[in-house]
Structure to design on (387 residues):
């Protein structure tokens, strides 16, 4: 799902977060969690992978910067047509945030605070710790041209607090996780701690939206840090869609979704629109940005309304399980693979692109199989029982 952004545009868009099912307590893979209490929403797992692939396409073919060193020239030259569409892939992060709002509301409904915290930490951290160590080790190899962060900074990265502490990041995409963590904290304190119910969730969405407007007007950095004006509307919209999932006739829920979309597209356009910039890698138009944001809202709405219940294939669960580890490792390790295949073995650009995606999915499967599956339940149990 969540930060790779330098402005909210190009760098911040670096990156991104499996789905609960409202009948079981533990559900989707990834920072958003899987918990829920109904049948598993496998279409949501599939949508998460689509969002992750959008971000990967952006990192490999939709921007300049470090990936240019891997290709040996700008991706604009490697992919003369694809790069124009790949530039919109950074909006996969906003799609992640909508999904996260839906899933976290589902996960926290009827759950005590300690259980909620245990669920979030155990889903987020094991794969993250291993990804940080893996990328640090690979970048430290003499044959890798990218510079590794210092050992001290790498250790700080294990806390997931590197951004507010001003420490160099190991993973470019970790900025989105810092956004997610702040959302989890707000939701935990305002909704889970007192006990989730419809009225409290509606009040939380209304209060957060008003706080965004006040923060924008006040120009206070601390308020911006807590309220997150650029991203709040996507989480709020996702929460509203979970309320729609519970009751499609809920007018307040639909109102929350509408306001989330209207404010969210504004911030996305403001951060990413660059049609007038002659030096832009690729030109993103207002209409294109709004359409991608609308896609995220409409897709989650279709799932919330049960319109995609037919998409119930088991492989979608596997797709959902791979999404988070894939998201963590695909960017930096993808640079290494691209350089090895394209410049080292002279594999054509299109084949290198496909093989890099495939290799990162395989690595994601290994992380899920040998890291997440054994460690997540143990960590969750330990945290849930701690006093």
């Amino acid at each position: 799902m969540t930060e790779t952004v330098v402005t909210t545009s190009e760098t911040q868009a670096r990156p991104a977060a499996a789905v609960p099912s409202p009948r079981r307590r533990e559900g989707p893979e990834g920072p958003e969690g899987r918990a829920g209490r109904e049948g598993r929403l496998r279409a949501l797992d599939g949508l998460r992978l689509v969002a992750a692939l959008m971000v990967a396409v952006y990192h490999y073919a939709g921007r300049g910067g470090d990936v240019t060193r891997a290709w040996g020239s700008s991706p604009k030259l490697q992919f003369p047509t694809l790069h124009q569409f790949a530039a919109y892939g950074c909006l996969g992060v906003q799609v992640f945030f909508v999904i996260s709002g839906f899933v976290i509301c589902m996960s926290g409904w009827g759950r005590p605070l300690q259980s909620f915290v245990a669920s979030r930490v155990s889903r987020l951290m094991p794969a993250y710790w291993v990804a940080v160590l893996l990328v640090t080790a690979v970048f430290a190899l003499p044959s890798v041209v990218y510079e590794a962060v210092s050992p001290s900074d790498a250790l700080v990265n294990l806390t997931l607090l590197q951004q507010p502490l001003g420490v160099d990041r190991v993973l470019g995409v970790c900025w989105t996780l810092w956004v997610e963590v702040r959302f989890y904290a707000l939701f935990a304190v305002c909704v889970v701690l007192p006990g989730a119910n419809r009225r409290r969730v509606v009040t939380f969405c209304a209060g957060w939206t008003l706080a965004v407007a006040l923060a924008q007007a006040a120009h206070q950095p601390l308020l911006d840090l807590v309220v997150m004006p650029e991203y709040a509307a996507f989480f709020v919209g996702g929460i509203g869609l979970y309320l729609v999932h519970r009751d499609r006739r809920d007018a307040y829920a639909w109102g929350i979704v509408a306001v989330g979309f209207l404010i969210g597209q504004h911030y996305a356009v403001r951060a990413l629109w660059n049609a007038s910039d002659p030096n832009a890698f690729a030109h993103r138009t207002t209409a294109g940005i709004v359409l991608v944001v609308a896609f995220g809202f409409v897709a989650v709405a279709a799932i919330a309304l049960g319109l995609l219940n037919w998409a119930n294939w088991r492989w979608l669960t596997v797709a959902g399980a791979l999404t988070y580890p894939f998201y963590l490792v695909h960017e930096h390790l993808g640079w290494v693979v691209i350089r090895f295949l394209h410049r080292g073995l002279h594999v054509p650009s299109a084949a290198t692109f496909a093989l890099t995606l495939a290799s990162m999915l395989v690595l994601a499967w290994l992380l899920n199989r040998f890291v997440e599956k054994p460690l997540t339940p143990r960590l969750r149990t330990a945290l849930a029982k701690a006093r």
User: Anything to note?
Assistant: DSSP finds 15 helices and no strands in the chain. Residues 2-38 have pLDDT under 50 and may be disordered.
